[in-house]
Amino acid sequence: MNNRTLHADEAAGDDRRFPSHADLNLLRTFLAVYRSGSFTAAAPLLGLSQPTVTAQIRTLEQQSGRTLFTRLPRGVEPTALAHELARQVSGPLDALAALEGGAGPLSGHTAPVHLAGPSELLCTRVLPALAGLVADGVQLRVTQGLTDPLLEDLRAGQHDLVIATRRPRGRTLASLPLADEEYVLVATPDWARRVAEHPAADGGDPCVALRDLPLVTYAEDLPIARRYWRTVFGRQLAARAALTVPNLHAVVAAVAAGAGYSVLPQSLCEEHLAAGRLVLLHDPQEPPLNTLFLVQRPGADANPDVIRVRDRLRSAARAW
């Protein structure tokens, strides 16, 4: 390997139609786009303009005769050929960058780890699990939000890791199951007594007894409550929210203060349940579960600290 070319015939395989020698600068640009998730994000990392990055990727695609990236409204998705090429060239390019004393997407040096997920989970589980790594020198940049926007931002290169409440669609994003959340139907003891005293309680139908209770939720479309009703009671939830608040922590606070009932992740209300401030309104044999997934941006593990954060989360999740 010299300072201009890198053999890429083995990287692509006989059926990939990559040229026997690929321009090193084009491969550097390719790897930066692959790891950052977009032409726009790769440009400042390379010290190039976005049109130059686009032109270089187009040249590499023309040389190979194959598409490397699928263009999305926000960012790009690597094709199967791009995954194979990245696997083959990342080692040599990272080694070269280290010899040159570089830093950034090609160097393999540590950099801040961009982590995102639901705000409640970040506060109660994730940040306590990662505190030791921060004390050891790992830099974290944490973002809270809903799964779909966070996954779009990850595809655009804004995050390294996302804790998602569902498995991402398609095969372009690597994900692994992290932990299961159990949902519980809860209210204060006072509201529980009202439910128990309702005439419908004798018939064993808690749905009827709950109709007159105010429902507290974080979203107008009642996603968690609707899932609980469908899974546990086998029917649609016929209710509207009496109170909507910005996040699940606020739901817990409102319900514990006596505003009404809600369906919540058990982890968020364990202390209230243990202290008797909240009680279960229903205790099904098989409570509904929601699996959390850890999703990683392609190429993010070029940063060793991303691997450390990922492994620490996987280890801590066994006790969640």
Description:
- The chain is α/β, with parallel strands linked by helices and 320 residues long.
- It folds into 3 domains: 5-99, Arc Repressor Mutant, subunit A; 113-173 and 297-317, D-Maltodextrin-Binding Protein, domain 2 (3-Layer(aba) Sandwich); 181-289, D-Maltodextrin-Binding Protein, domain 2 (3-Layer(aba) Sandwich).
- Helix content is 45%, strand content 20%.
- The strands form 4 sheets. Strands 5, 6, 7, 8, 11, 12 and 13 form a 7-stranded mixed sheet that branches. Strands 1-2 form a two-stranded antiparallel ribbon.
- Helix 2 crosses helix 4 (50-64), helix 2 (24-36) packs across helix 5 (80-99) and helix 6 (119-135) crosses helix 13.
- The protein is elongated, with a radius of gyration of 25 Å.
- Residues 1-17 have low confidence and may be disordered.
Structure keywords:
320 residues, alpha/beta, Arc Repressor Mutant, subunit A, D-Maltodextrin-Binding Protein, domain 2, 3 domains, 7-stranded mixed beta sheet, two-stranded antiparallel ribbon, 13 helices, 13 strands, elongated, disordered N terminus
Summarize the structure.
The chain is built from 13 helices and 13 strands. It has helices at 9-12, 24-36, 39-46, 50-64, 80-99, 119-135, 147-155, 189-197, 206-209, 223-233, 248-256, 266-275, 304-317, and strands at 5-7, 21-23, 69-71, 76-78, 113-117, 140-144, 161-164, 174-187, 215-217, 241-244, 262-265, 279-282, 289-296. Strands 5, 6, 7, 8, 11, 12 and 13 form a 7-stranded mixed sheet that branches. It has a two-stranded antiparallel sheet with strand order 1-2.
